[in-house]
Design a protein that fits this description.
Helices cover about 30% and strands about 15% of the residues. It has 12 helices and 14 strands. The relative contact order is 0.19. By secondary structure, the protein is of the alpha+beta class. Strands 2-1-14-13-12-11-10-9 form an 8-stranded antiparallel sheet, with helices on both faces. The chain has a 3-stranded antiparallel sheet with strand order 3-8-4. Helix 1 (about 45-60) runs parallel beside helix 6, helix 1 crosses helix 11 and helix 5 packs antiparallel against helix 6.
Length: about 375
């Protein structure tokens, strides 16, 4: 497992120097020497940014949280006349399932099929939840909700999602290493982290009980010692749900600006922090934000995962202190031993961010 855990301003006063740590397994060093400033696919942390853009439009009265999906995307989402922007796309209570592990999409997720999916195509393959639930009835995380939000944003503003991100978030905040990925390519002249995933045998074991993975299906890419696969898979499908490339420092700049009130009016920040129970996330889910309870108190942020990349990025409630933990494997940390170690690492990092003693069962190095 390869980890990078830069933490910005970790002291209790909020004015300490950044602490940056980058460690990796020895067998990966021939390909890339990991650094805390490497570009990284931050996956579903993108959802926080997408919601910020939506709520900016709400503040300008161009989108209403009570608008139905059908109003903006007629005929595109089944049951869209009963699904609203607020109650159900933003907080994952729409009743929509997820396209991510469906048989149609799985070959693209693993890189076995080279296909550029359009948001409308992904929505067309999105199944109902099993068992079916009515909008507003139950929290269930779905990337389809945010594909729809991206389309609504483009329709409401008349500009592309990438343009909105640059004009309203990355450029004003000076996030020079952040952009919405449109293919698998990395920018020339920039450092980026190399991602790894389990081979077919280990992947099937990891996903057991989640999806019936056919024998021999694994991630595309050259094989490596330790039954891992190097990944460079096209992430463009993740788009408004998870397509951002960034660095630990850049994303912390965004998240602290958001939580300190610099990007949204007070009314919209209050809406953004309104939560629903999300037991599968280990806490509560607001609008594109997770409210997580750690051994050292409450933190706000999100998690992210794409092939080869997992991330957890949090701040305190005021956006004064923040922490990012990046791991360059996603499915690899879902194995039981790795998941336990990763949770202990995140707990230790968030406690350090809050200036509190590290839990006794957390890793020290």
């Amino acid at each position: 497992m390869v980890c990078a855990g830069p933490a910005e301003r970790p002291l209790i006063s909020g004015d300490g120097k950044p602490v940056e740590i980058a460690k990796q397994a020895a067998w990966t060093k021939d390909e890339h020497r990991l650094a805390a400033g490497d570009q990284f696919r931050v996956g579903s942390n993108t959802k926080t940014l997408t919601v910020t853009l939506v709520l900016q439009q709400v503040a300008q009265q161009k989108i209403s949280l009570d608008d139905t999906v059908e109003k903006w995307l007629p005929g595109l989402v089944k049951g869209g006349e009963h699904i609203t922007v607020r109650m159900q796309l933003l907080n994952h209570t729409s009743g929509l399932g997820d396209f991510l592990l469906t048989p149609q999409f799985l070959p693209s997720l693993t890189g076995q099929e080279q296909r550029t999916w359009k948001p409308k195509e992904l929505l067309a393959t999105t199944p109902e939840q099993d068992p079916p639930t009515e909008p507003g009835e139950k929290y269930s995380y779905s990337n389809a909700n945010y594909e729809a939000l991206g389309l609504i944003l483009e329709k409401a503003t008349g500009s592309s999602l990438a343009e909105q991100i640059e004009q309203k978030i990355t450029k004003p905040l000076g996030m020079k290493d952040s952009f919405l990925a449109t293919d698998a390519a990395w920018p020339a002249g920039k450092r980026h982290a190399t991602g790894y995933e389990p081979d077919a045998k280990r992947l099937k074991a990891v996903l057991s009980g989640t999806v019936d993975l056919p024998e021999g299906v694994g991630f595309a890419g050259p094989e490596h010692p330790g039954d891992n696969i190097d990944t460079a898979i096209d992430p463009s499908w993740s788009w408004a749900a998870g397509g951002m490339v960034s660095t630990a420092q850049d994303w912390q700049r965004f998240l602290t600006a958001l939580m300190s009130g610099r990007l949204l009016p007070e009314a919209q920040m209050k809406q953004m922090r309104t939560t629903v129970d999300a037991p599968e996330e280990g806490g509560a889910y607001a609008l594109g934000l997770m409210k997580m309870e750690t051994p050292c108190g409450t933190v706000w942020g999100h998690t992210g995962g794409l092939p080869g990349y997992a991330s957890e990025i949090y701040t305190d409630a005021t956006g004064t202190r923040s922490v990012a933990v990046f791991t360059i494997t996603n499915f690899g940390i879902k194995e039981k031993k790795a998941a336990t170690t990763n949770k202990a690492l995140v707990d230790a990092a968030t406690c350090h961010m809050r200036g509190k003693p590290q839990p006794s069962d957390s890793p020290t190095g």
